[in-house]
Amino acid sequence: MEERIASPAKTIEILQSNDFQFLKKFGQNFLIDLHVLDKIIRAADVQAEDVCVEIGPGIGSLTQALAEHAREVIAVEIDDRLIPILQENLKAYSNVTLIHQDFLKLDVKALLEEKGIHRPIKVIANLPYYITTPIIMGLFESGIPLAGMTVMVQEEVARRIQAGPGSKDYGALSLAVQYYAEAYIAAFVPQNCFMPRPKVGSAVLQLTTYKEKPVSVKDEKRMFSLIRAAFGQRRKTLVNCLRNAEALALDKERILEALESLGISEQIRGEALTLQQFAALSDALMED
Fold it and tell me: Would the pLDDT of 2 be above 90?
């Protein structure tokens, strides 16, 4: 077995020998805790036949562990300075493909087709905080075969994604993610597990994709427009939030009729509705 990259001593050695300087614009925080690394692998349930896509491998700490458990690892790194470091650190692993690319601009579907991969993949990543939501939602909406995601994210974001109705963390992001996957926080990770230390705590978030969506709705885009409007002004009632949303073009009478037909109080706020209720309300408001 190769020496662990994720140890503090090894990470410092690699950084110093390559005179590597962290760039704030890439949100670089390298994992240096082997116990957290193990928790990520366990949460993702990486098996010998799995194909894993890693976003932002850094110096290869997580990539190394994935390569030792999975059939194939595709690691996508935006920082060209890290490519030669990754090539050196991972030269013992023939099942790793390195791609120098901005993941948000990568056509993952085309890449998988080019490589002849048709089975559901597992996405595993230590995500920079500033692109967490675009990456997660982009993957869900891309139509690629996706078994699930195991992502290290800002603790606050993880709590928002996992939150249920009535809680202060519950919002449009919670509902958007939970439409596609079951979410749970596998571990909380303190700042001292990274180099350099981030300003806030992190969490390992496991998202297991549904084989069938938990709700049926006539128009997904319409439902999510409704959800965004419902949380646009949290202190206002749902009726007022929807009536004030110009993009929805709904009058108060129509909203009240839809709520009454579903047995929902006109005094309710958006944060109290479940995903199922939002789907039903969206359908009710589409009826002539």
Answer: no
